[in-house]
């Protein structure tokens, strides 16, 4: 029996305007009210989930969210941290050197702030970053983080990101993408499945009692972990290949459609 529903946000749960449809909100709220745990699992930092958790009423004592591709897991109500992994100073220095060699801007992302380097101009990240993020623009040589850094990003055209992804794994980090034009680095071994497993264990459930939805490369491990895995129709081919089921696209509420077909209480 499914007790936990975990879902990616952008291009999965949310429509292309980055909004949650009334139908999807209604379905998730109903299931949450029935006692199922609804967990938002995103590459976004904390401000990117705040409004959505409030909109869905995910503010009960045992409600949690997975941020920054699994590098940070917090209780929605109290902010209590049940898991976190940060990038080391050595890794930050190595990535900075790599960015200088590649002549490309880099985003150092804390729980609530993006430190964006401007040595080679400003990147496009601010054009698609979640609402509520605070940006601090710095030169690489002036970057001395006062907050823990959970994730690093490179925003560029997809072909440039392809080339970066092929070479950056030598830095001994976890590498993924949440969209074709954004490369993301986390501490080695970090992914959404790691964060989700921490929540599931905290709640007293197991992987077979989890249903997960996704569309992109950074959802792969989470879909492999879940007992029931679903990709939206607009997902990357490699994501569809690991999912047990395929539902409709995010633009026509594919997640809500699948949930209504699965749970009898919604019929």
Average pLDDT for all residues: 95
Largest sheet: 8 strands, mixed
Q: Can you give the helix content as a percent range?
A: 25-40%
Low-pLDDT windows of residues: none
Taking strands numbered 1, 2, ... along the chain, how are they ordered across the largest sheet? 5-4-3-2-1-12-13-14
Can you name the CATH architecture of the largest domain? Answer: 3-Layer(aba) Sandwich
The secondary structure category is alpha/beta
CATH class of the largest domain: Alpha Beta
- The portion of residues forming beta strands comes to 15-25%
- The rounded distance between the terminal residues' Cα atoms is 17 Å
Number of domains: 2
Rg (C-alpha, Å): 18 Å
CATH topology descriptor of the largest domain = Rossmann fold
What general form does the structure show?
globular
Q: Got a strand count?
A: 14
Secondary-structure element order, N to C = EHHEHEEEHEEHEEHEEHEHEHEH
Total of DSSP H or I helical runs spanning 4+ residues = 10
Fourth-tier CATH superfamily name of the largest domain: HAD superfamily/HAD-like
């Amino acid at each position: 029996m499914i007790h936990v529903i975990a879902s990616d946000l952008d291009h999965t749960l949310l429509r292309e305007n980055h909004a949650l449809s009334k139908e999807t909100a209604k379905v998730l709220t109903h299931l949450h009210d029935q006692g199922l745990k609804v967990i938002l699992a995103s590459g976004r930092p904390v401000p990117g989930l705040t409004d959505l958790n409030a909109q869905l009423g995910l503010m009960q004592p045992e409600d949690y969210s997975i941020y920054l591709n699994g590098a940070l897991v917090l209780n929605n109500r109290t902010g209590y941290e049940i898991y976190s992994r940060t990038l080391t100073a050595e890794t930050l220095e190595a990535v900075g050197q790599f960015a200088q060699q590649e002549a490309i801007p880099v985003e150092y992302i804390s729980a609530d702030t993006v430190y964006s380097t401007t040595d080679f101009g400003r990147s496009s990240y601010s054009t698609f970053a979640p609402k509520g993020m605070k940006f601090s623009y710095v030169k690489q040589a002036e970057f001395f983080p006062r907050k823990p850094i959970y994730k690093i990003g490179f925003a560029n055209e997809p072909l440039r990101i392809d080339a970066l992804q092929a070479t950056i794994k030598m830095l001994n980090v976890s590498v993924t993408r949440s969209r074709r034009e954004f490369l993301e680095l986390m501490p080695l071994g970090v992914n959404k499945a790691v964060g989700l497993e921490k929540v599931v264990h905290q709640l007293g459930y197991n992987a077979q009692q989890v249903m997960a939805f996704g569309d992109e490369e950074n959802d792969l491990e989470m879909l492999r972990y879940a007992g029931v895995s679903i990709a939206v129709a607009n997902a990357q081919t490699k994501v569809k290949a690991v999912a047990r089921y395929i539902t409709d696209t995010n633009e026509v509420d594919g997640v809500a459609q699948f949930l209504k077909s699965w749970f009898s209480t919604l019929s």
